[in-house]
Q: What sequence folds into this?
């Protein structure tokens, strides 16, 4: 057998096995999910329909003569109407359990209905459980009305335990599984066709590459390999293996010449790796402020622009704030690091801060309205002003001023930043404990204008 035939069969059966295993797994999963979905629908529907009935009224229906009562007619009409609302439902019925026996109360069947007080002889575990809590059959069950998958839910408040039952005919269940089987069969046929086509092209492509490799080996070794390997009686792989042996001998002869080239390539690769590492380090430094390992102005502006674009889409609240601390000459780096440490322990997950200048930090407060943002900033301001900062070998406390502004239009981001600076200056001019929202006037201690 030629290598091409071997490759075709190996690829064909490998693909079929893989597709069969995966397809079988997904088919069984889909089959299980379908059955679980049907059971869940029956369970939820029965629990929902229970709300349509009054247990006290149903307690009055006990004997065949009750069919003439208005209560029976009213409730039978209800279950018949409910049964017609969903084509998957075959019957809806109400049952009562008395002295460990089960009796019909109402049946939606219009052709052969069970009369009130008729005993139901099938004592199914799921049905008995349905008198206590919602339940559903583990599998289809057969009685004198046919084969069904049923769901049950208890009706509370009556003299005797009662339940509501919903039947889905086995034919309807089987139809759903037949659709699933049909889809699986079509998928299997398509998989076989695709496996055949892929195996054909892969095997042909592989043997063609063998011929190309032989031509390439001849060019490399400068020897007529075809004349040498034609004496071999094996298949294409055997002849290719012989060609590899001849090529290996040629490579060993040229190994000394290639050693210098290999060393040169390794040196260039090492230089390239070093350059990439340096570039990555530079990019990382570009996103953070030197000596502080916090975001700088360029990085935070990019984040703000991204949030502004998101704000333009979902129109969620979007606030910016400038936090300025007292500048102490020669210690701005130390103070920035200490303030950043405090902020990292106090900021919420969606909030971001960065260095704006030597004595100012900028805070991004997405998903906060004006009042919430003001309250948050008052808390951050109070937290920082109550904290101790180590400067010049001693602990000191610092005043902080906060300017706040809400982004109204993402296209006016620059105007928002300018108004933010104005609000910060107003906060600094007013007092040491103010948060100023830019709307033309400052906010008081509670955040109102």
A:
């Amino acid at each position: 057998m030629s290598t091409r035939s071997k490759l075709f069969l190996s690829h064909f059966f490998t693909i079929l096995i893989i597709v069969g295993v995966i397809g079988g797994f997904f088919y069984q999963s889909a089959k299980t999910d379908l059955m679980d979905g049907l059971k869940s629908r029956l369970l939820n529907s029965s629990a929902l329909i229970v709300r349509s009935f009054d247990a006290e009224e149903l307690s009055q229906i006990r004997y065949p003569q009750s069919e003439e009562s208005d209560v029976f007619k009213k409730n039978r009409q209800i279950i018949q109407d409910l049964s017609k609302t969903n084509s998957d439902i075959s019957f809806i019925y109400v049952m009562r359990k008395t002295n460990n026996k089960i009796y019909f109360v109402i049946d939606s069947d219009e052709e052969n209905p069970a009369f009130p007080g008729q005993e139901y002889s099938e004592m199914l575990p799921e049905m008995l459980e349905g008198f206590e809590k919602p339940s559903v059959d583990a599998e289809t069950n057969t009685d004198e009305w046919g084969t069904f998958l049923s769901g049950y839910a208890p009706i509370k408040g009556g003299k005797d335990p009662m339940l509501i039952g919903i039947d889905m005919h086995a034919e309807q269940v089987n139809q759903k599984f037949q659709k699933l089987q049909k889809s699986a069969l079509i998928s299997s046929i398509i998989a076989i066709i695709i496996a055949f086509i892929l195996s054909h092209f892969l095997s042909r492509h592989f043997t063609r590459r063998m011929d190309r490799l032989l031509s390439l080996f001849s060019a490399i070794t400068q020897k007529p390999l075809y004349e040498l390997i034609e004496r071999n009686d094996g298949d294409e792989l055997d002849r290719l293996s012989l060609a590899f042996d001849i090529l290996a001998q040629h490579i060993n002869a040229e190994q000394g010449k290639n050693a210098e080239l290999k060393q040169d390539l390794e040196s260039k690769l090492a230089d390239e790796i070093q350059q990439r590492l340096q570039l990555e380090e530079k990019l990382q430094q570009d996103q953070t402020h030197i000596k502080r390992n916090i975001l700088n102005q360029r990085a935070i502006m990019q984040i703000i622009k991204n949030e502004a674009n998101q704000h333009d889409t979902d129109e969620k609240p979007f606030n910016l704030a400038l936090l300025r601390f007292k500048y102490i000459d020669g210690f701005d780096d130390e103070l920035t690091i200490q303030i950043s440490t405090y902020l990292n322990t106090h900021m919420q997950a969606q909030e971001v801060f960065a260095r704006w200048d030597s004595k100012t930090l900028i805070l991004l407060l997405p998903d906060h309205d004006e009042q919430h943002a003001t309250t948050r900033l008052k808390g951050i301001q109070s937290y920082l002003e109550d904290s101790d900062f180590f400067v010049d070998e001693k602990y000191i406390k610092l005043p902080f001023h906060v300017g706040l502004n809400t982004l109204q239009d993402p296209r006016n981001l620059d105007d928002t930043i300018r108004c933010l600076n104005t609000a910060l200056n107003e906060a600094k001019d007013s007092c040491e404990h103010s948060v100023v929202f830019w709307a033309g006037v400052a906010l008081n201690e509670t955040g109102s204008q």
Summary: The chain has three domains: 11-175, 223-287, 294-437. The longest strand covers residues 146-155. DSSP finds eleven helices and 16 strands in the chain. Confidence is low (pLDDT under 50) at residues 287-291, 439-449.
